[in-house]
Give the backbone structure.
Amino acid sequence: MDESRREFLKTGAKSVAAVAAAEGFGKWGSAQKRVGANDRVRVAIVGLRARGENHIKGYAALPNVEIAALCDIDDTVLTEHAAKVRKLGHQPKTYKDIRKLLEDKSIDAISIATPHHWHALMMIWACQAGKDVYVEKPCSHNLWEGGQMVKAAAKYNRIVQHGTQTRSNVGVMDAIQKIRDQQILGDVYLSRGLCFKWRDTIGRTPISPVPPGVDYDLWTGPAPSLPFTKNHFHYNWHWFWNYGNGDLGNQGIHQLDVARWGLGLGFPDKISAIGGHVMFDDDQETPNTLNCAFEYKRLNKKPVLLEFEVRHWMTNHEAGIGAARPANAVVGETAVGGMGPLEGSYNSVGNIFYGPKGYLAIDNVAGYQTFFGRDQKPGPSKADGPEDHFANFIACVVSRKKEDLRAPIEDGHISSGLAHLANVSYRLGRTLDFDPQTQLVQNDEEANRLLRGADRGYRRPFVVPELV
């Protein structure tokens, strides 16, 4: 590493220490050590089931990363994954409580893969402890939390990557470049996102004992303390307002982010969503069928529209999305070509951009295609490619160049905010007129209260701080 680069890293570390001394990081103190280009970045992964397993695989594949710690509220999950990580050549410490983990000054970065209701508080705590952060999507449980996360990243000078990893997919990056730079479609007037996933009923589960080894109080964290049921726990927590944001904020946030990314726009001016929890009589609270519309006003130009649809059952493979799977399709999905009810996947997950010249369709796993003119003649296309989202985060941790992050927290906040706005519109049954500057709904205090999480509140001591 050249001397100028080394001096830059030293200067950056001193700046962080100065901020820590001036602002105070609470009980953790200044925990950030200097990371050089030739050092291994010491990462702690928090939340080890489901997406957390992808975090383990992603970091284990990087030669300049050491998985230094694991954290989970379930002893069984923690023990099993610690053994797996040791087989990969790492020797992680294990923690049940993230607050204990944050006392470890040797940790450089925290990678958060917990339920949504924990994301904001963990990210802010980590920033205050001098750690860089990778936080899963959606970054926040409500709109106000996202704003606090943006403030925390800036106040404590941290590198924060949002887990919308599609932004690091080479095929999607090429598609967005074609839309925004080459203008092959002309002036895009409609961006559409699809989240059509086969989601069966979750049934009803009674109150039952907390599983052995599970710290349910820690799992609950900021949310209200309620009796344990299986439907409030592993994965099905997505479908309850106290913990999740429905499929719009689960799978849908990826496509919602791409829909907005392709337009190159931020918060919308008007939001309307209608839908419901249809078909099933079960414990689920969030809608499983939802139609969302976002309007962007433009000075001296016609508005741009962004539409998003969540569908939980059967799909017609709109624009061919989901109609054919590549050879490495997910087990259980039919890997054949062609169109029709028995072809392809049960799901259609992707995006469509419409312009006066034609449209571009992005399949979540199969790449993109373009079609032009009245006859929809095929144009440029590209197969799906690899993602290096974790590698991009680690590179920025070393370089300290926030501008090189592909999914900075500022973008994560906006895209997550679109999901929160649509959910509030659905829950209130009315259109929201939004001010992108103040990030408040105009003349609607009830909506603003929901966007701040007032319907649920925060259970002490797990309170998201209000930063200035």
